[in-house]
Specification:
The protein is α/β, with parallel strands linked by helices and about 375 residues long. The protein folds into two domains: about 120 residues, Enolase-like, domain 1 (2-Layer Sandwich), CATH 3.30.390; about 230 residues, Alpha-Beta Barrel (TIM Barrel). It contains eleven helices and 14 strands. The strands form three sheets. The protein has an eight-stranded parallel beta sheet with strand order 6-7-8-9-10-11-12-13. A four-stranded antiparallel beta sheet has the order 3-2-1-4. Strand 10, helix 9 and strand 11 form a beta-alpha-beta unit. Helix 4 packs across helix 10 and helix 7 packs parallel to helix 8. The longest helix is centred in the N-terminal third of the chain and has 19 residues. The protein is globular, with a radius of gyration of 20 Å. The relative contact order is 0.16. Bound molecules: magnesium ion. Magnesium ion (MG) binds next to loops. Its cofactor is Mg(2+).
């Protein structure tokens, strides 16, 4: 039995400096500033959750997330939790528009549930296909928006460290972007390239950009969110144009919920989907993964600017579901200090979940 009573709930803002600003087409993070939730049961078991707030992407704010989680924390004190998923689904509507807070709540509740049951979190997410679990996998590493020289330096460093998949942020300046992609290709010629435009192109410009890359033999395996969130027509145009090619067209900003995922799959607007706990929570994220897997849609599991706590929670999801083709769980490499340490992630970007401790397995100090 994993029934428990919440004795205490603490909400706090945590922050950490970054190694380098995390720049994308629509803005940047200069530091990690997130909201943590700690729940403690009457038996003294603690569970932790993290809300990664990306105001320039989702419009959510630190004060709003803090207030929402403080409200939830107050409501949870003294509450008996019998069915973790039912409880989270019941509270979800009161966190509408603040999916990061929902993710933190679900993470903390599931962390406790799994600790009480003595199982690692991945066991809560059974395999989505007959391929079973996938306990060992590598994350890509992001080359943030910046100069050609910065792209060169970062690629050389990460390549030496052992990374083999580079996710290059583009969509800010096409001429520089082209040079940056070619620089990564030149420095790490055997690597896989992923491009993430974060909505920075329109369909025609994106296809022209890919043509230029083709001419230099630098074709990406996956192209993420080339056009604005609601430009489904643009996504469809690009997907049709790339049909049969080696490049998947992946929705990120366009798919934040199960209904968005249904639309993306039913219309064939994209050929891959990026799931993030911060967009849809853990339960709905897993539902999206199962829906996509049933429809043979490749999946990326990504993250906002998350510390080791929530990155590790996502790694458990990926390991359990076993249907994640592209892990984009690299933000700990951009964070300085304690919050960057996941016990299941090594310096080369390899996650190894075999033998993981009960729960998420991360004990944040805050
Ligand atoms: Mg993205």
């Amino acid at each position: 039995m994993s029934q428990f009573v919440v004795a205490d709930a603490i909400v706090s803002i945590i922050s950490s400096p970054l190694v380098t600003p995390f720049r994308i087409a629509t803005g940047q993070h200069d530091e990690l500033e997130n909201v943590f939730l700690c729940l403690r049961t009457t038996d003294g078991v603690c569970g932790y959750g993290e809300a990664a707030v990306a105001t320039h992407i989702t419009g959510e704010t630190i004060p709003g997330t803090l207030a929402n989680l403080e409200r939830i924390a107050a409501a949870l004190k003294g509450c008996t939790v019998e069915d973790p998923e039912a409880l989270c689904r019941e509270l979800a509507p009161s966190l509408k528009g603040n999916h990061a807070a929902l993710a933190a709540l679900e993470m903390a509740i599931l962390d406790i549930t799994c600790r009480i049951q003595g199982i690692p979190l991945y066991q809560y997410f059974p395999p989505a296909t007959d391929k079973g679990n996938k306990f060992t996998f590598n994350t890509d590493i992001t080359i943030v928006i910046g100069s050609v020289e910065e792209a060169r330096t970062a690629t050389a460093q990460y390549s030496a460290q052992g990374f083999t998949t580079f996710k290059i942020k583009v969509g800010k300046d096409e001429a520089i972007d082209l040079e940056r992609v070619l620089a990564v290709r030149e420095i790490a010629p055997q690597s896989e390239l992923i491009l993430d435009a974060n909505m920075g192109f329109n369909a025609a410009r994106m296809l022209a950009f890919l043509d230029q890359l083709d001419q230099h033999g630098a074709r990406p395996v996956l192209l993420e969110q080339p056009v604005p969130k609601y430009d489904w027509e643009g996504l469809s145009t690009i997907t049709k144009a790339l049909e049969g090619s080696e490049t998947l067209v992946c929705a990120d900003e366009s798919v934040g919920s199960l209904s968005d995922a249904k639309r993306a799959i039913d219309t064939g607007a994209v050929s891959a989907i990026n799931i993030k706990t911060m967009k849809s929570g853990l339960f709905e994220g897993a539902e999206i993964a199962r829906l996509a897997a049933r429809n043979n849609i490749p999946l990326m599991l990504g993250a906002m600017m998350e510390s080791a706590l929530s990155i590790t929670a996502s790694a458990h999801m990926a390991a359990g579901l076993g249907c994640i083709d592209y892990a984009d769980l690299d933000t700990t490499f951009f964070i300085k200090g304690e919050l960057s340490h996941s016990p299941y992630l090594d310096n080369t970007g390899k996650f190894e979940l075999v033998g993981a401790a009960p729960g998420i397995g991360v004990e944040p100090k805050f």
